[in-house]
């Protein structure tokens, strides 16, 4: 199985980027082709053989990753699967690529693999990095309904069939949008605790646009993908959960502004999932109302 890797960078972490690229080059098995996308930023000097794309402006996370996909041909067709890795991550084990190949070979309907993210110093996996509701045991692998954007592998046939990430999201929830479309097309998603990406512990709210885009994209996600009956239920639950978490007043204002924006701006093409997909998500432990 031919593997490629897409790494998105803002050009501000050259040492971490080089360490990541070295860890990819050190994987067992056939070499992995790598594309580094400079998202509105010039790229540092890269190792020989690494492809590079320098974008004149920041297209956001999904837009930048989509450019990386197309660098491997339409829908990444030059390879069989693509790894998407954060530029400040690191593959600590040399057999991760081989595990990816084995997993895809063992299950022809497995479309996406979500890696376990662990802090390089403590080994701790944050609860938010386990893509399921029952997240107390990050060492348990399972089938899931979404995946982690900067630590995953996607079969390129999935991208050819259901399309790439939603460019307009810019940041937040773009993985779930792709995951729901993949599940609706009959593909499976697995969280694998034995496939590890080291990444320093961070808080998503460090991004200035976090609260607004999380809320806006949550609305867009529902409007694009859910049956009409479930849209108000899903968004009502998330509104109550947000209020229950008692965010600061500035954060709540930003969230409410994004929530309104999600209703008043175009969400992109609407392709509501089938009810059997709703039932599948429910059986997997995450009905699309939460």
From TrEMBL:
Organism (species): Streptomyces albus
Biological or metabolic pathway of the protein: Cell wall biogenesis; cell wall polysaccharide biosynthesis
PANTHER family in UniProt: GALACTOFURANOSYLTRANSFERASE GLFT2, RHAMNOSYLTRANSFERASE WBBL
GO molecular function, one term: glycosyltransferase activity
Record keywords, A-Z: Glycosyltransferase, Transferase
InterPro entries listed in its UniProt record: Glyco_trans_2-like, Nucleotide-diphossugar_trans
Assigned protein family: Belongs to the glycosyltransferase 2 family.
Keyword Glycosyltransferase: yes
Residue ranges crossing the lipid bilayer per the database entry: none
Name of the protein in its database record: Glycosyltransferase family 2 protein
Residue stretches making up the Glycosyltransferase 2-like domain: 6-159
């Amino acid at each position: 199985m031919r593997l490629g890797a897409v790494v998105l960078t803002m050009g501000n972490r050259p040492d971490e980027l080089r360490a990541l690229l070295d860890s990819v080059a050190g994987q067992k098995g056939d070499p992995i082709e790598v594309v580094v996308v400079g998202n509105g930023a010039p790229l540092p000097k890269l190792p020989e053989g690494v492809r590079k794309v320098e974008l004149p402006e920041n297209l956001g996370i999904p837009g930048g990753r989509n450019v990386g996909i197309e660098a491997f041909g339409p829908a990444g067709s030059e390879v069989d699967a693509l790894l998407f890795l954060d530029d400040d991550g690191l593959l600590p084990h040399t057999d991760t690529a081989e595990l990816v190949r084995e997993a895809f070979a063992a299950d022809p309907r497995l479309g996406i693999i979500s890696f376990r993210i662990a802090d390089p110093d403590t080994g701790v996996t944050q609860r938010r990095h386990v893509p399921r509701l029952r997240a107390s045991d990050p060492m348990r692998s399972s089938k899931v309904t979404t995946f982690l954007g900067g630590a995953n592998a996607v079969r390129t046939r999935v991208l050819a069939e259901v399309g790439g990430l939603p460019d307009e999201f810019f940041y937040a929830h773009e993985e779930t949008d792709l995951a729901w479309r993949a599940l609706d097309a009959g593909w499976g998603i697995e969280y694998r605790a034995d496939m590890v990406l080291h990444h320093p512990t961070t808080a998503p709210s460090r991004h200035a646009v976090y609260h607004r885009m999380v809320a806006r994209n949550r609305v867009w996600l529902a409007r694009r993908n859910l049956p009409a009956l479930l849209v108000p239920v899903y968004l009502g639950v998330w509104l109550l959960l947000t209020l229950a978490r008692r965010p600061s007043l500035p954060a709540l204002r930003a969230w409410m502004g994004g929530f309104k924006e999600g209703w008043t701006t175009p969400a992109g093409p609407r392709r509501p999932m089938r009810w059997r997909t709703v039932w599948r998500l429910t059986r997997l432990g995450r009905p699309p109302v939460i």
